[in-house]
Amino acid sequence: MHALFGKTLPELTELMAGLGQKPYRARQVFEALYKQRVGLVEDVTTLSQELRDRLIAEGFAIGLPEIAQTAKSVDGTERYLMRMADGETVETVWMPDGDGGERGDGSEAAEEESAEVVVAEEAVDGGYWSRRGNGRDRSNFGTLAEQGFRRATICISSQVGCAVNCQFCLTAKLGIKRNLTAGEIAGQVAAVLNRHKIQIGKDRINLVFMGMGEPFLNYEQFMQSVRVLVEGIGIPESRMTVSTSGILPGIEAFAKETMRPKLALSLNASNDVVRERIMPITRKWNIAALLEAVQKIPLRTREWVTFEYVLLGEVNDQPEHAREVLELLDGIRAKVNLIVWNPGPGIDYHQPKPADVAVFQKMLIEGGIATYIRRPRGRDIYAACGQLKRTVVEEKPQLVEISAAS
Ligand code: SAH
Ligand code: SF4
């Protein structure tokens, strides 16, 4: 099977040229793949029947991942088992939200939105919207708004498993099976958008590359998926955040990209001794090297680097650690996302005490760093941070609906 999904317009143009077709045919396929998000070559009705038959005969398919299983949390979060063409599976998470606070999806969208509101109000003062006779947020009146949500965030995987071996993470237990292709990464988004009948341009969608795998160990495919998601699907890169455990060459390459998501770095410890223990990769690239590389990223207006910090009871959650974090981040345009560790079977840590979490956050805020506590999403269905692993691996996928509420 040759997957069409994931190809850029130039790649499709080349493919069509190889079949003796004019460039406008590539544009038609591009539109069908990313704007109409069709699932079958047969349904690309802008192409002649003859051309569709030929594509199918030559082994071409759209190649979207298939939602093989669904679990729904009481908080509205949905976790999907996504099945790739070769039968490998990864997990993808859908997090709809209606409030304007720090919602726990990792996207930092609330802040961005409040900035947009200011801009919109200025525009009203300037008469633009008044002239249009419409003062409401025009970017959200699609399917989501009808369901009472302001936005949704999709958390996508970049690899089958992960090689990084962080001691507190369930995905690490899988080891690494293989990289996902750009089409498989962006395809998770298309599959979820189709499921919820989302209209890009009307509904507000954020993406976080925070699922299974380390995006910067699959750098080229990850970046190609970003291009497809921006240029094809139509989600601006400013609404995307990629999280890395700290792959130095990846951060250095990322700093040079012109079209890129925002960055989140999984700091998770306040010194190298603790970090080496919980994230052995620190032996290869230590905190100082990572912070130096992060500071070379040219930030855009209103852009901050997010530092994720998983709080592990008594390991990294004490006041002395908070003081060290403040020293580390001094002078960096940083904000901190505290993540209360989510437990998993066979992982020997414990959750921090609520009082310790509160003190940690207060100390960072008083030290001048915007610090949020990421609300756990979908913990009841194992969809929260660090809980993604393939729950079921089957020969034949079944469409099973599991509802935590029932
Ligand atoms: N591999 C990338 C992105 C996926 S993990 C990375 O590590 O950054 C996304 C976030 O979840 C990371 O910040 C990671 O430190 C955190 N995480 C992993 N396991 C967790 C757990 N059990 N509880 C809470 N957060 C966890
Ligand atoms: Fe991999 Fe991220 Fe889990 Fe570490 S935290 S093992 S990098 S998925």
TrEMBL record:
Main subcellular location of this protein, as a coarse class: cytoplasm
Cofactor requirements of the protein: [4Fe-4S] cluster
PROSITE patterns noted in UniProt: RADICAL_SAM
Any Pfam family hit: Radical_SAM
One Gene Ontology CC term in the entry: cytoplasm
Keywords: 4Fe-4S, Cytoplasm, Disulfide bond, Iron, Iron-sulfur, Metal-binding, Methyltransferase, rRNA processing, S-adenosyl-L-methionine, Transferase, tRNA processing
The EC number(s) this enzyme carries: 2.1.1.192
Other remarks in the entry: Reaction proceeds by a ping-pong mechanism involving intermediate methylation of a conserved cysteine residue.
Family: Belongs to the radical SAM superfamily. RlmN family.
Protein name: Probable dual-specificity RNA methyltransferase RlmN
